[in-house]
Amino acid sequence: MASPTRVDAVLHRFLPNRQRKNREHVGKIASRKIWYEAEDDSNEWVEWTPPTLPEPKRVKFEGHAVHVYMTRDQKNDFSNNTTYSASKITINSPYLREELEEVIKKYDVSFKNGVATFSYPFKPLFFSREVIREKAIATNDENTREHLKILWDVIEEVLGDTIDAAEELEKDESISFDLLWTLFPHGSMATAPEFRFGINATRCFRVKEHIKSKDKNPKVFKLRGTYVAFNGSKFVVRMISMHINKFHGTKKISQLEAVPLRSRPDYPEIEHQLKKRGQRVVDEFQTAFYAVHSRHVGNQGGGNAVVESSDELVIIDHYKYSQERDDLKGSPIAGYEDLPSKQRSGDEGEASSLKLVDIASKSRGAYDGISDDDIRKNRNAVLLNEENLTLISPIVFGFSLANKKWGAYDIEYIRPVSSSDEAINHLVFDPKKKELLSALVDNHLQTSKQNSDVINGKGQGLLVLLSGPPGTGKTLMAEAIAAKTGTPLYTVDMSALLPNPAERLKTIMQLTTSWKAILLLDEADLYLQKRSAAKLDMIEQVSAFLSELEYFGGVIFLTTNDSNLIDRAVISRVHVHLQFSPLDATRRSQVWTSFISRLPPKQFEISKEQIESLSKWKLNGREIRNMLRTTITWRSKDQRPITLDDLDNILAITYPNAGNDGKDTDASVNELIDL
């Protein structure tokens, strides 16, 4: 068959004369007209198969409702006769235009000058054939019925082999590469795996078009479609391209890289799951959401996606993400302009019952993302067409509290963070002080306290100083309070703020305020040392911190080995100062007992007397943790309980200088080790 590009280059000399005044006859005859490509390459279409070339009258041919253009095949038949195949079909009928103009519009075909043109392989006609048949049955107008029947007959004749082949393969739930296009009508729903960012999830998209290959023998079948995503402000339509690699023979439809939604063996269950997933995005992820992700699947920072097996604390926040990245752009979904005015303005209505699940639901006013009114409007816009739920992306974007990077996450692995008393209960520290600090932090996070400062907006933060020697549990205290209150903990290593510590810290403080998170500045004395004329840079750093602190409304934990090193202006603004002193043997015994009790009973064979012996070693909490981890790793393949001898052997090679004289030492620990 001649290529469509060749067909388009051939001029039809019987096209309607645009200057002609009388066009009432055009397309009125309920018949089709077949044209053949002339053999002499004269760029003409002729009425009969060459060499018969009569000179017809233009008016005679313009009257036909449908014109079929036959192009010479590149190879003759077995008898060496010239054969022809349909390469172009035009519809001239005004009756067909009235019935089909809206039907074919979605295929980017229109009636230009009263004529609609279709090129091989006539995809719009293939996908619209049932609509055409139904219209022919339903219409009460005799002329319209006759014209629809003529078009139906043309489709049956020109596309009959294609229709039969596709239907026969469909019975076997299979398809050939050449007929892949028959599976994906414009506007249909299809699914494909989502592999970006290391994610392995099912994505649903709406077919927009088949991307025509420039190759005569394409190696892939390309699709372009649309899906729905939340960009931090609205739900938008975004484009996506998919491809199916070439294969020989036939292939099961379910094994294709992209599968029509209704052809999946798990349909309609999969559709229900996709809608449920989309509903969760609408209900939970329009605001910042503090969550556990069972594995970190990737980040936008460059390089290959990283996959981790351990749980990771993240904050899903599309609003903040969109401020950092510009890859969530798209056109708003249809429906925003159709919302009733009271829903657009956020007045009372069905949408007002929306349950918000965010990181600070008791004090949402502090979150600087979208408003509750916007959330309700977004929800109603999505639900105007339930298919939007099916099309919502499985990817959510957020911030990893572990590696301090924005990344992409699979919603199926996201779950809310639950508060836990376990860490604070096992923390070896004064119970009353633990309870008091926990109450102060929890109250500050959940309520908007009356501001007693003379200047509005100042002095609304809570500053907690934790001081003491290394390994005494300062960091664990902050972690335990965060776990008990179910609050994100943003830990900052002061050395990581370089080279612009003031600006970097300002950004972090803004984030933690927005997220209602606890900000932990570890080893703060490195950044907040006492100012002196000899350290101009320190003067600038401390001054910048104090300036930000004045208007900071969140919770900050500062840790230091020696509070005397921190500038007095910072100390004067501290609300709570907890000092961590070295432990005696009794409290070290509590730490050993607490730690071992949290491990499987069969993993250790350690008596109370042996724990008392262990507590005499001059180890701080961090050293105990490292020693136990090393011992567990060493004996992991032995399939036997760990004994005191094992611990002694590890101690000899990890901390050979540790004393064991049975006396109190200045080694320190208040910390329960958490492997």
UniProtKB/TrEMBL annotation:
Domain AAA+ ATPase span(s) in chain numbering: 460-584
Record keywords, A-Z: Hydrolase
Gene3D superfamilies, sorted: P-loop containing nucleotide triphosphate hydrolases (3.40.50.300)
Highest taxon, organism lineage: Eukaryota
Span of the signal peptide: none
InterPro entries: AAA+_ATPase, ATPase_AAA_core, DUF7025, P-loop_NTPase
Pfam families named in the record: AAA (PF00004), DUF7025 (PF22942)
UniProt keyword annotation of Hydrolase present: yes
Region (Disordered): 328-353
Entries under SMART domains matching the protein: AAA (SM00382)
UniProt GO MF annotations: ATP binding; ATP hydrolysis activity
Hydrolase recorded as keyword: yes
Record-given protein name: P-loop containing nucleoside triphosphate hydrolase protein
Lineage per the UniProt record: Eukaryota, Fungi, Dikarya, Ascomycota, Pezizomycotina
